[in-house]
Write a structure and sequence with these properties.
Helix 14 packs across helix 17 and helix 15 runs antiparallel to helix 16. 53% of the residues lie in helices and 10% in strands. The chain has 483 residues and is an alpha/beta fold. The chain is built from 19 helices and twelve strands.
Length: 483
């Protein structure tokens, strides 16, 4: 079999098929393989008919068709399936060949696989892929990380097929071992936050303002022309005006119980592991968990009381503007927290992350793509060492401008009994972050009182001491316990 394919792709679900066709559009010869080989023949006979795509019916045949260094990309379910394919591929590959995992793998797995394959002389890359089916077909956001020696061999293909913004590809090398999948995980966490914030705005419009679905759609369309311009605002506009066969809004027939695939949860867990207050993404995950308690909520609605009315009795247009500004300010906090987590992970693992470059990768092709990300890229260009987006002049001014509306929305929602967990936690984070003093001094005293965990004095930071608060305890401290 002649070596004619530039890259192989394993996994012919919709994402895999579309990415293959995208690569074919850009002049690359792709070898398609699927564990169920009938799917290969079906793909070649239908979707890939008339293209340069070739198929293989075994991994051995697939490898034999690849130019060297061989490039094999997997788009299969994260977890054991990835390890299983790697185990089958390793004996067939040679030193310097490249294996790419394009699934939503957990970054610790990618770190492990990078090391294991490096020890075998192979180059492993964990590549975050965002943009859904359409992105895969016409230009996704791609976030590759792992063994950097692979990048020169992948760069021409991945940058060619990625989305472009102002002529720049939404794809660049992210960093070592698990960096690519970590960045994709944070992207998905921010996506959770964006979606929940939009849903809270919708909830307020529908319940507090009693707006029709056509009116809500128009509001989101108007918002999409300004600083909230984004893919998620755009699709929300389309969803709200979509009518079922009976002429009624389809969205209201959908069960209010949201699922998740895990990446938002992973982001929240990583935030806890590294001590970063990524509160908005955490709340967005918990909001989905709460939504899944549908039967309990239905029962609770009959026995738990709230305010007498959930209807806003003021100027509707004015309150709509308050909601818009609250959404924008909360979105700023969400991204600020996401980049805080990226910075802490970079410190933890020694990654040299390009934060402005990451913002550029997210400007096109992916689910959180928005004009807003251009402002984040500019912020890191102005100050590559920026510790928090809220400290950038542009974002600080924006939050100051939106602050009164933000507080009005959170206070009004509480008064009306309408839950806004992400609007509320974003504001609480902002107020906490800008506070010179927080009540953690009392927490330290409490911990020392009941567990002799010690505390620091304002006058001597870094020096821990213990007090016998009752006169009955001892003077031995538990200095190694930091819970």
């Amino acid at each position: 079999m002649s070596e004619k394919a530039d890259i192989a792709l394993i996994g012919l679900a919709v994402m895999g098929q579309n990415l293959i066709l995208n690569m074919d559009d850009h002049g690359f010869v792709v070898c398609a393989y699927n564990r169920t080989t009938e799917k290969v023949d079906q793909f070649l006979a239908k979707e890939a008919k008339g293209t340069k795509v070739v198929g293989a019916h075994s991994l051995q045949e697939m490898v034999s068709m690849l130019k060297k260094p061989r490039r094999v990309m997997m788009l299969v379910k994260a977890g054991q399936a990835v390890d299983d394919f790697i185990a089958k591929l390793v004996p067939l590959l040679e030193k310097g060949d490249i294996v790419i995992d394009g699934g939503n793998s957990e970054y610790h797995d990618t770190q492990r696989r990078t090391k294991e394959l490096r020890d075998k002389g192979l180059l492993f890359v964990g590549c975050g892929v965002s943009g859904g089916e359409e992105g895969a077909r016409y230009g996704p956001s791609l976030m590759p990380g792992g063994n950097k020696d692979a990048w020169p061999h992948l760069k021409p293909i991945l940058q060619a097929v990625s989305a472009k913004v102002d002529g720049e590809p939404c794809c660049d090398w992210v960093g070592e071992d698990g960096a690519g999948h970590f960045v994709k995980m944070v992207h998905n966490g921010i996506e959770y936050g964006d979606m929940q914030l939009i849903c809270e705005a919708y909830h307020l419009m529908r319940t507090a303002l009693s707006l029709s679905h056509d009116r809500m759609s128009q509001v989101f369309e108007d918002w999409n022309k300004g600083e909230l311009d984004s893919f998620l605002i755009e699709i929300t506009k389309d969803i709200l005006k979509f009518k079922d066969a009976d002429g009624k809004p389809l969205v209201e027939k959908i069960r209010d119980s949201a699922g998740q695939k895990g990446t938002g949860k992973w982001t929240a867990i990583a935030a806890l592991d590294y001590g970063v207050p990524v509160t908005l993404i955490g709340e967005s995950v918990f909001a989905r968990c709460l939504s899944s308690l549908k039967e309990e909520r239905v029962h609770a609605s009959t026995v738990l009381k709230g305010p007498a009315s959930s209807v806003y009795d003021g100027d509707k247009d004015q309150f709509l503007e308050h909601i818009r500004q609250a959404l924008y300010a909360s979105k700023i906090v969400s991204y600020a927290q996401g980049f805080m987590l990226l910075r802490e992970a970079a410190k933890e693992f020694g990654w040299k992350l390009n934060y402005g470059g990451i913002a550029l990768m997210w400007r096109g092709g992916c689910i959180i793509r928005s004009a807003f990300l251009g402002n984040i890229k500019s912020a890191f260009e102005r100050n590559p060492g920026l510790s928090n987006l809220l400290l950038d002049d542009f974002f600080r001014a924006a939050v100051h401008r939106c602050q009164e509306s933000w507080r009005t929305v959170v206070a009004t929602a509480a008064r009306l009994g309408i839950p806004t967990p992400c609007f509320s936690t974003a504001l609480a984070f902002y107020d906490g972050y800008r506070s010179h003093s927080l009540p953690a001094n009392l927490i330290q005293a409490q911990r020392d009182y009941f567990g002799a965990h010690t505390y620091e004095l304002v006058s001597s930071p870094g020096r821990f001491q213990h007090t016998n608060w009752t006169g009955r305890g001892g003077n031995v401290s538990a200095s190694t316990y930091q819970a």
